[in-house]
From TrEMBL:
Gene from which this protein is expressed: prtp
Protein name, per record: Thioredoxin domain-containing protein 5 homolog
Annotated signal sequence range: 1-22
PROSITE patterns recorded: THIOREDOXIN_1, THIOREDOXIN_2
UniProt xrefs under NCBIfam families: pdi_dom (TIGR01126)
Record domain Thioredoxin: where: 14-145, 152-274, 280-417
Higher taxonomy: Eukaryota, Metazoa, Ecdysozoa, Arthropoda, Hexapoda
Organism (species): Drosophila kikkawai (Fruit fly)
Length: 421
């Protein structure tokens, strides 16, 4: 697993981050104020505890250093983004004028020196790139991705010796992990969309199902977000949300059509792994009828939805903004503000579609994807999320208003010249 949160050390920074998030709803510029302090300040008493508990990216600095002063706003911006609940990495700093021995122990010979301390590794990694947000986030993505692959290797070895590392929890799958995960064994997979009300009602039951199936190690309970990983959902012919599929050794065996209460779901799993049924056929028939109605409702619901288009590569981006109005969110998957905006952005796409705005596109660009890096540099994306509206290929000023749905819709209306939204 990647690093666990160092709550005892980062508590102050996290509280300040939460306060900044709340303030941003009132004043979106609040999160960008340089005077706010989000980076965790470490000293000899807290340093070793911090790096023993998780991944920590440390800025060793001196207050009088000009380069350090120029880096300070970006470092706090990075800390505001990263120092959230259960972060993959803590953004921290050490004042070398106060803690010379500590800085000397980590080969700090100039200011600022940026070092990444990865969980479980004795040697730190020195950052040597340009001190801008894209370069730093690329560095973190690469280093933490390497660490995640190592963790996956350990998990694979456990499975080889007969342990189910996912026992008791719902496995959150993505494009990189899906095929390998379902390639062998029994898997009960939920294909869902975050905005789907049926999915939201099922979510706590799905989590409980995973916990209660600990005595059945021959099956894993999983989920995959179809708004993020559409190609996989299309491959499995998902037409409504949630769709529950039983997969064995990489092949779809059947679509579950029973009731979505905990007991019926458990009975289904027990049947599929060879344990006798506990429910009568009469109960199962009643459950099937209810599930069919829910599936019909879900398919009707998904037909009315339109998610924000995921743009990939310069050609698709240029085509998207060329004609009409395109409102685009530039984001990073790990960004807390981006995650908070995500459901609102999808709702904006849906309601724009329902208003028959054929000349309007609501889209998003993942700036951490290699094929999008140059796009985000060219568009002068300096933080996440950044919202730009394009009209017939011309970029407008950055949107800095409230990120609530009514304000986003009002902003769109200004460029459409009518009130159809």
């Amino acid at each position: 697993m990647l690093a666990k949160s160092i709550l005892s050390i980062a508590a102050c920074a996290l509280l300040m981050s939460a306060a900044a998030h709340a303030a941003q709803d009132e004043d979106p510029s609040a999160g960008k104020q340089a005077e706010k302090q989000f980076a965790v300040e470490l000293d000899p008493d807290t340093f070793d505890v911090a790096i023993a508990g998780g991944n920590v990216f440390v800025k060793f600095f001196a207050p009088w250093c000009g380069h350090c002063k120029r880096l300070q706003p970006l470092w706090e911006q990075l800390a505001e983004i990263m120092n959230v609940d259960e972060p993959k990495v803590i953004i921290a700093k050490v004042d070398c004028t106060k803690h010379q021995t500590l800085c000397g122990a980590h080969q700090v010979t100039g200011y600022p020196t940026l070092r990444l301390f990865k969980l479980g590794e004795e040697e730190s990694v020195k950052f040597k790139g340009t001190r801008d947000l894209p370069a730093i986030t690329d560095f973190l993505n690469q280093e933490l991705s390497t660490l995640a692959e190592a963790d996956l290797s350990v998990a694979t070895k456990r499975e080889e010796v007969g342990e189910n590392a996912n026992l008791g929890k719902v496995v959150d799958l993505n494009e990189e992990t899906f095929a390998k995960h379902v390639s062998s064994g029994n898997h009960f997979v939920k294909f869902f969309a975050p905005w789907c009300s049926h999915c939201q009602r099922l979510a706590p039951t799905w989590e409980t199902l995973a916990k209660e199936l600990v005595p059945e190690p021959a099956v894993t309970i999983s989920k995959i977000d179809c708004t993020q990983f559409r190609s996989i959902c299309q491959d499995f012919e998902v037409k409504g949300y949630p769709t529950l599929l039983w997969i064995e050794d990489g092949k779809k065996i059947e679509k579950y059509s029973g009731s979505r209460d905990l007991d019926t779901l458990k009975t289904y799993v027990e049947k599929m792994v060879g344990v006798p049924l506990k429910k009568s056929d009469e109960d199962k028939t009643a459950g099937d009828e209810a599930a069919k109605k829910e599936d019909a409702d879900a398919e009707e619901e998904v037909a009315k939805k339109l998610t924000a288009q995921q743009l990939t590569g310069e050609a698709e981006f240029d085509e998207s903004i060329a004609d009409g109005v395109a409102f685009i969110k530039f984001y990073a998957p790990w960004c807390g503000h981006c995650q908070k905006l995500q459901p609102t952005w999808e709702q904006l796409a849906t309601e724009t579609h329902q208003a028959h705005q054929s000349g309007v596109k609501i889209a998003k660009v993942d700036c951490t994807a290699p094929e999008n890096k140059q796009i985000c540099i060219d568009q002068q994306v300096e933080g996440y999320p950044t919202l730009f509206l394009y009209k017939n290929g011309q970029r407008q000023s950055e949107y800095e208003g409230s990120r609530r749905l009514p304000e986003l819709q009002a902003y769109l209306k200004k460029f459409l010249g009518h009130d159809e939204l």
